[in-house]
């Protein structure tokens, strides 16, 4: 899947806008000794929904539009995030997906995070004597970005060590003063917003897991309610997941035959998972907080529409679940 679009070139103006309007957005911006720019959206800064909205657009590499509206589908939780991209595969899988595993140190002082955003498309490593993308997904996408600056988003509650930032810069082949690190704790308003802003991305990721041809997905939009934040990390994470699992809707426009489109529609909803039926925090606890034991097929929107653009037919599957959403958000 070849493209000349640079997700970093498109995302950096949004990052610069956030820096220029840090006071208005209630962000804390600082430069570390190595020149890296840290944008705190919820650790020592207040942040907010607008900061989270902009971070979601950064995550999508500037290839997506993220808006806030009120949706009557859930009267008690009306604030909704709406996401659209006319290049959904590159926006969601080539940038937004949190696929770069980052770590430094060992034991209690270790730092670990999953990196998302446009830096992923620049990151490379040496493997078997050849330069390869840090993530194998980019070999499948046939995409690598090159740009003079980059940005990475981490869903963490502390600033990463300078050694890790240097590692990011080396992988992306830029100087550390060209790296922008955006930090959004899950328990913050901005953190909640940017996670739920992945409602389209989880649909794309599950479609990929189901081996639907990525090149056949040509457009997409999605929405989900924005959950109230929670100071407890597990409950905060649970609510952001549940917003998508029980309240998310995705609409994909695809090429190819009707049979493939209908099959995708029926396999995509979260309700097809063996772990569907209770708030995510409860599922997580039952697996003794081992994320990798959770059925990966759970992570997808509650309901989907898949439109086969060549025939004009649309296929609907799944449904919104207000009762489970209330159990998650209202406790």
From TrEMBL:
What's the EC number here? 3.5.4.27
Q: What is its main location?
A: cytoplasm
Q: Which Pfam families does this entry report, sorted A to Z?
A: MCH
Catalysis performed (reactions)? 5,10-methenyl-5,6,7,8-tetrahydromethanopterin + H2O = N(5)-formyl-5,6,7,8-tetrahydromethanopterin + H(+)
Is Cytoplasm found in the keyword set?
Answer: yes
Q: Where in the cell is it found?
A: Cytoplasm
Keywords from the UniProt entry: Cytoplasm, Hydrolase, One-carbon metabolism
Instruction: Give the UniProt entry's GO cellular component terms.
Output: cytoplasm
Report the top EC class in one word: hydrolase
Is this entry keyworded Cytoplasm? yes
Annotated GO molecular function terms are: methenyltetrahydromethanopterin cyclohydrolase activity
User: In what pathway does it function?
Assistant: One-carbon metabolism; formaldehyde degradation; formate from formaldehyde (H(4)MPT route): step 3/5
Give the GO biological process terms. Answer: formaldehyde catabolic process; one-carbon metabolic process
Family, per entry:
Belongs to the MCH family.
| Role summary | Catalyzes the hydrolysis of methenyl-H(4)MPT(+) to 5-formyl-H(4)MPT.
List the HAMAP family hit by this protein, alphabetically: McH
Protein name per Swiss-Prot or TrEMBL: Methenyltetrahydromethanopterin cyclohydrolase
């Amino acid at each position: 899947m070849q493209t000349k679009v640079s997700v970093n070139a498109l995302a950096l103006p949004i990052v610069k806008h956030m820096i220029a309007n840090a006071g208005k957005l209630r962000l804390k911006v600082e430069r570390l000794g190595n020149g890296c720019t840290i944008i705190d959206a919820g650790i020592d800064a207040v942040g907010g929904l607008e900061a989270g909205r902009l971070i979601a657009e950064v995550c999508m590499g500037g290839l997506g539009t993220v808006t806030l509206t009120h949706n009557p589908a859930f009267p008690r939780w009306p604030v909704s995030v709406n996401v659209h991209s006319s290049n959904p595969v590159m926006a969601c899988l080539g940038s937004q997906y949190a696929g770069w595993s980052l770590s430094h140190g060992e034991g209690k002082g270790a730092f670990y995070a999953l990196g998302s955003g446009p830096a992923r498309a620049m990151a490379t490593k040496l493997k078997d004597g050849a330069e390869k993308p840090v993530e194998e997904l980019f070999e499948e996408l046939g995409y690598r970005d090159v740009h003079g600056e980059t940005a990475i988003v981490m869903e963490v509650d502390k600033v990463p060590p300078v050694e890790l930032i240097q590692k990011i810069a080396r992988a992306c082949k830029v100087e550390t003063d060209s790296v922008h690190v955006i930090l959004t704790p899950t328990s913050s308003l901005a953190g909640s917003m940017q996670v739920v802003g992945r409602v389209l991305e989880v649909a794309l990721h599950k479609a990929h897991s189901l081996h639907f041809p990525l090149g056949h997905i040509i457009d997409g939009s999605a929405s989900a309610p924005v959950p109230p934040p929670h100071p407890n990390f597990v409950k905060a994470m649970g609510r952001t997941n549940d917003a998508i699992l029980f309240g998310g809707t995705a609409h994909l426009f695809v090429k190819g035959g009707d049979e493939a489109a209908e099959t995708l529609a029926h396999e995509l909803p979260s309700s097809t998972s063996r772990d569907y039926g209770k708030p995510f925090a409860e599922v997580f606890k039952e697996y003794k907080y081992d994320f990798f034991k959770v059925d990966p097929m759970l992570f997808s929107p509650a309901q989907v529409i898949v439109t086969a653009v060549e025939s004009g037919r649309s296929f609907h599957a799944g449904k919104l679940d207000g009762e489970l959403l209330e159990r998650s958000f209202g406790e």
